[in-house]
Design brief:
There is one protein chain. The chain is an alpha/beta fold and 211 residues long. Helices cover 40% and strands 23% of the residues. Helix 1 packs parallel to helix 2.
Amino acid sequence: MARVDLVLPVYNEEHVLARSVSTLHLFLSDNLAHEWSILIADNGSRDGTREAGELLAKELANVSLMHIPEAGRGRALSKAWLSSDADVVAYMDIDLSTDLSAFPRLVSTVADQGFDIAAGTRLGAGAETTRSLKREVLSRGYVQLTNLLFGTRLRDTQCGFKALRRECAQKLLPLVQDTGWFWDTELLLLAAKGGWRVSLVPVRWTEDPDS
C-alpha cells in the first residue's frame, strides 16, 4: 500500500476552504485504498485562510497546514512536494472543479501501474467539461501553441489534478523555474522531454466562475 500526500495550494480561499477540505476528507476516507494525508499549502494569503487551515488541521485527522509567506501556486507545490516522504505526491485545486471520482484512478496510475506522472485531462476521449466557450477556445489554443513551440504532444497542461512518484518529483521540481501559473506546463514539458512515463487521466470538470 502506497502513502499519498495530497496538497491543496490555496491563496485567499477562506470562503471555501472548510467546505472543500471536509468534502475531500470524507471522500478519501470512503474511496481511497492507499494511506493518505491532506496538506493545505497556504501561499501568502491575506485573508483568514491560514487561520481556517490551522483550525481544520486540529479538527480533522490526517490534515496539516504549511504556510509559505510568498504567493505563487508553483512555489507552494514545489516546497510541499519536496518536503514529502510519501510514495506519491498529488495536488488538486481547492474549488474541486475536477470531479473527485477520478482521484483514485489518478493515484492508482502512479502507485499501481508504474507511471511516473498522472495528469488529469479535460480534453479527449472520456473527458467531460462544462465551461464557457471563451475558456474552451483559450485552453485549446494554449495547448496547441505549447505543442507547436516545444514539439510535444501534450493534451491538457493546466488541469489542476496531478500525481507524481516521489522520485520523479525530487528530480523534476528543482528544474522548474516558474513559481506561478506556468508551473504545470513547465513540469509536463520537462517530463515529456526527459522521457518520464506520463499518463493522462480523463476527468469530469466543471468551471468555477470565481477561478
